[in-house]
Write a structure and sequence with these properties.
This protein is α+β, with helices and mostly antiparallel strands. Helix content is about 15%, strand content about 30%. It has a five-stranded mixed β-sheet, covered by helices on one side. The protein has a two-stranded antiparallel ribbon with strand order 4-7.
């Protein structure tokens, strides 16, 4: 799947998954907005940047390294609360808090970020 299409599908899929869980979702009209959606949990509003990757693991630990930030855009803590990273390989989202210092993450079902796999509780 072409990268822009995969990213768009990931954004809508994330919104759909949030709505299935009873959250309200708002998306900005500009595609150049810092965040891709706002999730209203009923208790708070969360600004989410959705990323996607079509990469497969290159090691026997089944980990995938994914960039979160580039030189063009910095996702500071005041502009983005959470990242929702769609992995085609794992067929799900890794949803984790933006620490403000993260440039890349290494995702897997067994590693540091495994507890965030399809974690729509935003903890």
């Amino acid at each position: 799947m072409e990268v822009n299409i995969r990213g768009c599908v990931a954004e809508y899929q994330f919104g759909i998954e949030c709505m299935r869980r009873g959250y309200e979702v708002s998306m900005p009209l500009l595609d150049s907005s810092t965040y891709d959606c706002i999730v209203d949990t009923g208790d708070r509003l969360i600004k989410v940047q959705v990323k996607s990757t079509g990469k497969s693991p290159i090691d026997n630990l089944k980990t995938i390294q994914v960039p979160l930030q580039n030189n063009k855009r910095q996702y500071t803590k005041d502009r983005v609360d959470y990242f929702a990273l769609w992995s085609c390989f794992f067929d799900g989202f890794f949803i984790f808090k933006n620490l403000g210092t993260m440039r890349t993450v290494r995702i897997s079902k067994n590693g540091k970020y495994s507890k965030y796999f399809n974690n729509f509780t935003f903890e």
